[in-house]
């Protein structure tokens, strides 16, 4: 595999993910030219100033011109419109990919909007609670997983180049089919976000406990939820709508389990609670053993390090 | 206020909290003698080795002898037995306190077990996912809130000494009544823990997604829940049983809110989702503005710093 799997990449959508790809390609793939495009003129101007790309395209129609890789970094619900907008400049040989958090819907939307083109969706499991062009940075993908979901008829050579691209940006790449991706992410990401958004909303609606008390004593556990619930609202609205079936299925299971614990609390059945709480420790141990959460300073970004106590 | 609000403190229960108090008193209140006691002989031996106290008492009956402060650092459900065990050695002038996460039940249990004694419960909102005598450290309480809940008939001078004690250990102290404490903590701590325990259990029971996949892709949001759900099972069982009414009330509200979002997903109502997700960002901003979560290196402990990305 060559050091520059793609000669020129167009990034469509210059928020946290798109901006980070722009920084990362310039930092780690010096042989690749980066072209940026965003439907929002203000974002384009900001991106130019921030140097997120070698150049910002002058129009959607020309954005994909000359690129052998086009990555859509827009909310899942905006993929279709973005694909149609850049279609006129898109070469038949170019590879089309994306960074969306749900994959079956995106794969279908891109394939329909760009018939006859090569589409291999991907999902870098990376992000922060910040959003916007100025939130991006070159090392966002370092040591993070990127899941590539090639359709059954995808060209293996193109898949391999996409894998090489993400590896060059520092990611660890896994390949799976889109439907399985959507189930895995429904439980590891989408359901946790839905729960976090819910509980933060519940807390802000209380009458007997003030919002400032909620904030003040948030270190008791609530704080971790607020971090998750600060993610980009548009992105997450689209994730839930596009991965509806898997999310609703996981939610159904979660609700059943919660009802069981609720019943145990109401009945004062300490054994049920104790057994459940003991069982969940095993998963945590697995995460620590797999190095998915540790104190290595370069695992996270130093400017985002912080306390992670959980206090009663 | 003197530099040593208490001449001798007995710590009953030498786990994470008790051990940390032992370290902290020795570090920050050099004029105070620390006596340790734990019902478990193995823990007593370990505590002696770790130097959690100046001396480990030889029996429960003598543990409180000569102390003007006795702090119970045992699970909420074990307060009663621990109080009765040390009662023989307890002076009528000594102040009795604790570190439990629910306060109305504890206040009642201690008052009943130790009639005629001064009882002022407290709750340092601090902890880590680790437990046991070797998990403690002197700076656990630094810049963390400690909520003191004096009963209506408490001696104000004793309250003031307890406040001074916690401030000397680095905590920021607030005073409120026990019932209000229990409502505040039900939402900022107990409900988040219950939710986290639930979702981690749900994830580990799936058939279509393997446990190793859940662990591998946990950076998408799930990881933060596992950290919370790794807390001590005995402690948390007791918290839910002892703060049952407040927890069930918060849980009821949470379930209503979750049902609303579930319905929005099922109906494909993006506006409801977007509005909700936008609203929850305000709480997060409040937490950052109040300095309850930031990048100052001394806010958390350096050995527990780590990544806090939330990734889709």
Automatic annotation (TrEMBL), chains A, B:
It catalyses: prephenate + NAD(+) = 3-(4-hydroxyphenyl)pyruvate + CO2 + NADH. Residues 7-295 form the Prephenate/arogenate dehydrogenase domain. SUPFAM superfamilies: 6-phosphogluconate dehydrogenase C-terminal domain-like, NAD(P)-binding Rossmann-fold domains. InterPro entries: 6-PGluconate_DH-like_C_sf (IPR008927), NAD(P)-bd_dom_sf (IPR036291), PDH_C (IPR046825), PDH_N (IPR046826), Preph/Arog_dehydrog (IPR050812), Prephen_DH (IPR003099). It holds the Pfam family PDH_C. One of its GO terms (molecular function) is prephenate dehydrogenase (NAD+) activity. Pathway: Amino-acid biosynthesis; L-tyrosine biosynthesis; (4-hydroxyphenyl)pyruvate from prephenate (NAD(+) route): step 1/1. This is prephenate dehydrogenase. It comes from Novosphingobium subterraneum.
